[in-house]
Specification:
By secondary structure, the chain is an all-beta fold. It has a four-stranded antiparallel β-sheet with strand order 1-2-3-4, with no helix packed on it. The chain has a four-stranded antiparallel β-sheet with strand order 5-6-7-8, with no helix packed on it.
Length: 384
């Protein structure tokens, strides 16, 4: 059993997580509860979340006036099954934008977070792409229809998000060598992505993961499974001050993933898989080391320049031939990968036309590289 988080909404305290509740009449409720501050007892919301259903979390951010219930496909309050419902404070409702997402035959879609940013609604998870036969992990809704997030390649799971100075920050399992805009962490201004000083790395690429972020003393602290930040060695925990990455001195002992961060009364707390040498068995610790942080990477400026603007390609979808436009002057090679990052095609550019007829039907990522194999831009396309 786990409690993921607590939050206050419309004056009430809510809990979300993977926990069962057995009511007095013997019925069960899972993972969603509200505290009755008169009786000081937890109670279910207006309708039960059955243990056999797919809803697993309540998502709330202080910038929103609603709560989203998300997870695998399930039903709440007798509504048809979906991966997203809206909780208004007095009951659940359907969320019409999700009805525009195709339903996979195996009901395997998953929605993690839904949040508002700059007048559009963003959604993370692993769900059917409404415009192709593949899946996608990040999209946004403009009030009428779904649209791709500019510069997002399709793959790479997102674990957490946060805002500061009208900028969106995300972290997760995405990597630049798969066409993503950063290594486990990136910033977005609504149209352009920013690479935060090279991001985070782990020696086993597909095991690298940033799990959580918190703002602490106006700096972004990130934890997870990584061993460098901005190129300097760290122990699964680092902070970004807007110019450089710094590690936390000392060791956290046992290798494993650091799962969650919290800030309370200006103190930073951490939980996860570690074992402090002088405090064996501890899974929750707080930072008492003052402001002496090391090592730190070289400063790169408040914001690095936006990541390279993508080129253009057409037609999309294609039956096999793609014509490239607005090619960067240094572009020398084109590569094609599937959404898992597997390299399927690499060729030196000879003109602006590519013959990709041998590719099977599906969704792919096309990248341009310079002579040093640096990625200059990545776009998603569909092979019909």
């Amino acid at each position: 059993m786990q409690t993921y988080w607590f939050f206050r909404f419309q004056g009430n305290l809510f809990a979300s997580g993977n926990f069962p509740m057995i009511l007095q009449d013997g019925t069960g409720n899972r993972g969603m509860a509200r505290l009755n501050e008169t009786s000081m007892e937890w109670e279910p919301l207006e309708c039960l979340n059955p243990s056999t259903g797919g809803m697993s979390t309540l998502i709330y951010h202080e910038t929103q006036n609603v709560v989203y219930a998300t997870g695998y496909r399930g039903s709440l309050c007798g509504y048809p099954q979906s991966n997203v419902f809206v909780y208004t404070g007095s009951g659940f409702e359907e969320w019409p934008p999700y009805q525009q997402i195709p339903i996979p035959a195996d009901n395997s879609d998953y929605v993690g977070a839904v949040f508002e940013y700059r007048g559009k609604t963003y959604m993370t998870g692993n769900f059917r792409d409404p415009y192709s036969t593949g899946t996608i992990t990040f999209m946004r809704h403009n009030g009428a229809s779904w649209e791709y997030v500019p510069g997002w390649p399709g793959g790479g799971n997102i674990k957490d998000y946060t805002f500061r100075n009208d900028t969106l920050y995300i972290c997760g399992a995405f990597r630049m060598d798969q066409g993503a805009p950063g290594n486990m962490v990136a910033a977005f201004d609504g149209e352009n992505w920013y690479d935060l000083g090279g991001g985070l790395t782990y020696p086993i690429p597909f095991n690298g993961l940033a799990t959580d972020m918190q703002w602490w003393n106006d700096e972004l602290v990130v934890c997870g499974q990584f061993l460098t930040a901005g190129g300097v060695p760290v122990d699964r925990l680092a902070k970004w001050d807007g110019q450089r990455w710094c590690g936390f001195p000392g060791t956290l002992g046992t290798t494993g993933t650091l799962n969650k961060l919290a800030v309370w009364r200006d103190t930073l707390y951490l939980c996860g898989s570690f074992n402090l040498p002088d405090q064996p068995g501890r899974g929750v610790v707080k930072w008492v080391g003052g402001d002496n942080f090391e090592p730190c990477s070289n400063p790169v400026g408040i914001h690095e320049r936006p990541l390279p603007s993508p080129f253009t390609l057409a037609p999309n979808p294609t039956t096999g031939t793609l014509t490239l436009g607005q090619l960067p002057a240094s572009a020398r090679h084109a590569t094609v990968r599937d959404l898992s990052g597997r390299l399927l095609y690499r060729s030196r550019l000879n003109g602006s036309t590519l013959d990709l007829a041998p590719l099977a039907q599906g969704t792919y990522l096309l990248s341009l590289e310079d002579d040093m194999a640096n990625t200059l831009g990545t776009l998603r396309f569909v092979r019909e």
